[in-house]
Design brief:
alpha/beta; seven-stranded mixed sheet; homodimer; 14 helices; 17 strands; 23% strand; 36% helix; four-stranded parallel sheet; 429 residues
Chain lengths: 429, 429
Amino acid sequence: MKIYKGNILFTPSVHEFTLYQQGYLIEEEGKVKYTGVQLPEEYQKEQVTDFGDKLIIPGFNDVHVHAPQWCNAGIGFSMELLPWLNTYTFPAEAHFGDVEFAGKEYPRFVNELLKHGTTRACIFASRHLEATKVLIDTIAESGMGAYVGKVNMDRNAIPELQETTEDSLRETEELILWMKEKYGDTPKLNYILTPRYVPSTTSDLMDGLGKMSAEYHLPVQSHLDENRDEIAWVRQLHPESASFADVYEDHDLMPKGRTIMAHCIHMTEEEMALLKRKDVLIAHCAMSNADLASGIMPLRKYLDFGLNVAIASDMGGSHTVNMAEHIVDTIKASKIYWFYHPQDKAISFTEGFYLATKAGGSFFGKVGSFEEGYQFDALVIDDGRIRSGMEHSLLERLERFIYVGDSSCIEKRFVSGKECVYPIKEGKE
Amino acid sequence: MKIYKGNILFTPSVHEFTLYQQGYLIEEEGKVKYTGVQLPEEYQKEQVTDFGDKLIIPGFNDVHVHAPQWCNAGIGFSMELLPWLNTYTFPAEAHFGDVEFAGKEYPRFVNELLKHGTTRACIFASRHLEATKVLIDTIAESGMGAYVGKVNMDRNAIPELQETTEDSLRETEELILWMKEKYGDTPKLNYILTPRYVPSTTSDLMDGLGKMSAEYHLPVQSHLDENRDEIAWVRQLHPESASFADVYEDHDLMPKGRTIMAHCIHMTEEEMALLKRKDVLIAHCAMSNADLASGIMPLRKYLDFGLNVAIASDMGGSHTVNMAEHIVDTIKASKIYWFYHPQDKAISFTEGFYLATKAGGSFFGKVGSFEEGYQFDALVIDDGRIRSGMEHSLLERLERFIYVGDSSCIEKRFVSGKECVYPIKEGKE
């Protein structure tokens, strides 16, 4: 049991902040036991860790990010999705066939996440078995929370990356069992099935992964309706399915309440209804959607329709894992969308913060809030460096941290009550 | 005379990079004397400062930024321009009536510019005479280049900020003469007339400033066609002028080749023609235009039309002075614009870099390039921290610095051959 004191801010719902100036947070067995302005009677004699005037906020949850792309992030954005994948991303991911390369790059990636305050993430590795083990071990070492999957891709890849259907399924199962044995007692670290996207996976592979999802009760993550050329290609590849989204559903790759689909920019009404029915979490990647000229996702429309949406970095489709920047880009994109579609109101700061904390956290259980029973995932923010002579309210200070601050303001990172190991050791070149 | 060696990158034109791997830059009397791969015969025996494998690039030129808004940046973006000004910006600027407050905040602002590699800027101060002197002295101390003007605003302000027409003109002239006397021998530091924008300045004030521009041969900076409500208001205020842009022209506030207009999102064809005729430099503020939901400026259309455009931060209309981020946001905004207007091709990385260096530099003379005769304004970039196991070309390394890097990569900042004083001393609270 630990008691923390400081300025506590979180969003129990999408439209409201709870603020406790000089409040208390009691953590017990990794969970929030109490949050409030008064320390309850029975705890009055306990030791308190006092963070003074600093801010205590939930850690960020990044529900879509590509670990093997950090080594190449920011390069090649003159292209759209499909040529960018072939020219830059696939060749970069091919390097992870070399376990030593992975051993150098993955600690950098995990440090980059923690540096910017991401405490849990849903991660695409490359298609390589051994390198993905390295990534999982690295995440375990850091203490952050994650769903991780080796990418499955048995068609339309470059030769160095392409798998056979059989190898892809066999290695996936091997990894699932390895992870269960090694990390089965680590509830914050889990496997997620990761078919890259429809053009990369044959029907046989998708069928096999769909069966694994049922057999091992595993979640699924993939990409949907990101780019217009991509959508046209999927239509060609799968005329038998009603839509891009239906291809996943037709292969049992949309387990209810256990599926993340990234991008979802250009969905039809029928696809929206399907995703709602299957309780899919949409990973909204506003920065990537601009960097790769994919368009703007109609976020307000989806929220009004009752879809689950959370903010994601999609790094290397975008150029940073910094979730504060992704909150800002989500809000900016919604403002531009509103400019072109006046019926869809822009996203507020409160909504942006919720979508990067509690909305994404829901995929991991009770995560992303400081309500009783939630996992104690927290950041301690020292905003002294960015304060000015102006008087700012607690909420304005948080706004300043998100808009103006950077990683140097993040003093501590907790996951399930334990402080993360940051930075973890990076191998030398 | 100094000789520098390193990896040299700059954009002599909007479509082309010049790259010298392990090249030489010779600086003489603050200007570039030579750039190339070979050290000319006659310099072979001179001492060379070797920056090793680092990158040497032109400093960034920010052609539109608000000094008194750094203390409040990032707050209040739930509003559009007009309510945001009244609710957040004017009250923040009112603090600069206190010279001590200015003495604390302005060094922070100047350090923030230099931190992120801005070596010259066109700066709006507040309307206060004494505080603006503090700002000018602070910039002089740092050695960066700037045009600075006290804001003129004699209508529609909050009471604490509003000036009389007479005071506004008198104090402006006093400042011009003070600056001429104190810094007349400092060619990189100059006065620029700064009518806030039409709704803030009466016809009498604009007339008076127009006369000063002619009498002292001074440049002018202001805002134009940023927000639809603002444009409607200007139409109401000045039915006698053909357009928002014509209001400035009708008051002699568009001196040919010496005028910067910020935003220019919603210009008519006639306004575009007027700005072209008067050789106006458009300060393109893509991030601010998203943060304040103002829209997307049709950058490609303006470039094709032959208008002069440069990238600007417009901080606090945006939340950062970091010009690398503004390059990225300019490219992103142009991609989204292209998505909605397929005839207007997105901006390339090369174009983005040019618009933040040589395009803006043109307002300061021969600035923003390493061609012979240009001012030696340079940044030395140590990108070791962001390098990965991937092999990257020089241009890809620059792309990585712009997209993925941050101020910690900037090792040195030169203006007219002299290294800037950074950080300058900040007063204590």
